[in-house]
Amino acid sequence: MTLIEKIIANHSKFDTVKPGDIVDIDIDTRAARDFGGANVVKNLKDFKLPIDDPTRTFFTFDCNPTGSDQKYAVNQHICRLFAREHGIKVYDIDKGIGTHAMIQEGLAWPGSTAVTTDSHANILGAIGSFGQGMGDQDIAAAWSKGKVWFKVPPSVKINLNGEWPEEVRAKDIALNLLNQFGANDLLGYSAEIYGEAVNRFTLDERITIASMATEMGCIIILFEPNQWVMDYCEERTGRKLEPIKAGPDAHYEKVFDINLEDFAPRVSLPGAPHDTVPVTQVKGKKIDSAFIGSCTNGRIQDMRMAASILEGRQVAPGVVLKIVPATDEVWQQCLEEGLVQIFKNAGALLSNAGCAGCAAGQVGQNGPGEVTISTGNRNFPGKQGKGEVYLASPAVVAASAVAGMITTPDDIPDEPAFFPEPVLKSNSTTNLVSTKRIDEKPTRVKGRVWYIKEDNIDTDMIFHNRYLAITDIKEMGQYAFDNLKGHENFAKQAKPGDIVVVQKNFGSGSSRQQAVDCFISLGIGAILAESYGAIYERNAINAAFPIVTYLTLDGLDLKDGDTLEVDFISGEIVNTKNQKKIQGEPFSEVQLEIYQNGGLF
After folding, report:
1. What is the spatial distance between Cα 523 and Cα 544, in angstroms, rounded to a whole number?
2. What is the phi-psi region of residue 146: left when phi exceeds 0, alpha when psi lies from -120 to 50, beta otherwise?
């Protein structure tokens, strides 16, 4: 078996599993973050669910560890009160990013399983652990039952051959892989990475690459742990661990041989992590701010890399550099090694450990017209603020902060660039609409079509993170698609029963349940897509919201405003305007059962 198949089999009742099998998996560590935690608590209370094992159940507060937002503060306290009542440990605002804390505190180890309300939980693949981000219903089920259902994904093998160039960092490797695979070529796969150079990757480097799996559409990127990783995890867990390795005859659906020596430093252009170009192509681009941190590049190796460039230099006039270590342990290392003084001398703002701007909390947000270069993992429109965000390695970000423009460490000018103040754009008003929910559960629906011919419509486009504190589903519909360019008035114009038709990788990005519930709030009849983000697909199925997958729309002669009939049992899709039909994928047994039950609970 492959790595993912071994881990799943070891946590199920089966000796072996294969791609496509749907199995119940025992979960070693079950966690919820601050913004999703309150909804997990709500589910547990509403459905009177018990806690399976409080010793394996945790809260992690990392999205807004400063508590600077009132709604975050309220949600955090809801979680604290619940934790006190049930004997659940809280890794509070002083700890840092939850997935990193899992590794640091020995809550995850090679071969283990963990779930949390963080779409980057697959970061645990860095140590050969199965980590998954899931919606609040899934997490509540895991807390109550100690297990979740999961569909075994197919596996691919990526061989990184040769030696990587000295100027290429781990983030550059991730961006080069994104350039090759895009946002959906690896959609739904578990990817394993091998190679002689890979065997020497540090834990921090593995974390950086594994954390970008979500942006590639992967279920997870897994590394076989080397001896250093095994020693680290044994120290953190306090026990002897068995290494996890793929079988010698493991089957991979695809094998990719890639030459590391062809890699070069790259940046992601604003709006899409997979839209990457060589740094040389955007050299000289003015910036207003820079950010070093996030679950992708907030480790001590990243901090040292930035400090080596900032030492003896100053951040360019008019540029703001924000630095946020991933965990408090990393923060303390920065203090002990003198990195904090280097950052402060350079004119950077150093904040306490956490997710920072990535989750619309803490520091790192930018404003309209602002150009930011960031080490984050996402630069979806609106994700880190209202401005433009370029993604790069800590080395490129630090060098750019000093130069005042995008550049590389070997090409920092003697005099920084000066730029005029950005032109601010006014915010658009939000249209409020009445909401209506359809409670019937027909297996064949008919509705007017919204045909949106776009790939990679992410959860920030569907339901922006500025609305994440909303827990009442009745309030969610008015914000559906208000961050999707050209469809900002969707919620005002949509009618109950309408059917949304999109293309590849719908719902990529965050684990937020609201990106499903906003359509339920509006009474949308179904969504049809060629493929879905893995977490989004689970959230929709668990919420009993109809989603259907098609191979191609060829043959329907579909136009916006047509009427479709969709049969969930047979998978038949009919355009009633011309009676043309195609075959979609019928509901699986699991999907149908949950749908007819009215939801997971």
Report:
1. 12
2. left
**pLDDT value at 439 more than 70:** no
* pLDDT, tens digit (0-9, with 9 covering 90-100), for 265-303: 999 999 999 999 999 999 999 999 999 999 999 999 999
C-beta separation of 7 from 223 below 8 A: no
**Virtual CA dihedral for 299, 300, 301, 303, nearest 10 degrees?**
90
Check residue 286 and report its DSSP letter: B
Q: CA distances (Å), 455 to each of 187, 305, 448, 502, in order?
A: 12, 36, 21, 7
Q: What is the pLDDT of residue 420?
A: 58
pLDDT tens figures, 466-494: 888 888 999 999 999 999 999 999 999 99
Residue among 471, 520, 529, 468 nearest 497 (CA): 520
Mean pLDDT in residue range 554-578: 96
Of 409, 437, 405, 407, whose CA–CA distance to 419 is shortest? 405
Here the tokens at position 20 are 């496509």
DSSP one-letter code for 524: -
> Where are the alpha helices (H) located in 48-135, listed in sequence order?
70-86, 98-104
Identify each DSSP E strand in 182-316 by its residue range.
190-194, 220-222, 254-259, 266-268, 276-278, 289-292
| CA dist., res. 246 & res. 155, Å (int) | 11
User: How far apart are the two ends of the chain, measured CA to CA in Å?
Assistant: 33
**Among 70, 78, 60, 69, which Cα is nearest to 363's?**
69
Say if strands 289-292 and 371-374 run parallel, antiparallel, or are unpaired.
parallel
CA dist 89 → 58, 79, 107, 114, 327 (Å): 5, 10, 12, 16, 17
6-11-17-22 Cα dihedral, nearest 10 degrees: -140
User: CB under 8 Å to 503, separation ≥6 — which residues?
Assistant: 452, 453, 454, 455, 529, 530
What is the spatial distance between Cα 86 and Cα 82, in angstroms, rounded to a whole number? 6
Using DSSP, state whether 259 is helix, strand or coil. strand
Query: Longest C-alpha distance within the chain, in Å?
Result: 72
pLDDT, tens only, 30-88: 999 987 899 999 999 999 999 999 999 999 998 877 766 777 788 899 999 999 999 99
The sign one gets for the Cα dihedral 297, 75, 360, 291 is negative
Give the domains, in start order, of the chain with CATH numbers.
3-262 (3.30.499.10), 268-274+281-411 (3.30.499.10), 444-597 (3.20.19.10)
Instruction: Please report the DSSP string for 531-567 in residue order.
Output: -B-HHHHHHHHHTT--EEEBS--TTS---TT-EEEEE
* Confidence at residue 73, expressed as pLDDT on a 0 to 100 scale: 84
Residue 453 to residue 503: CA distance in whole angstroms: 6
Q: What angle do CA 96, 101, 107 make, to 5 degrees?
A: 160
**In one letter, which amino acid is 450?**
W
Note the pLDDT of residue 431.
45
CB 98 within 8 Å of CB 91: yes
CA distance 461 to 508: 10
CA distance 224 to 565: 47
**Three-state secondary structure call for residue 53:** coil
Give the torsion through C-alpha atoms of 107, 108, 113, 116, to 10 deg.
60
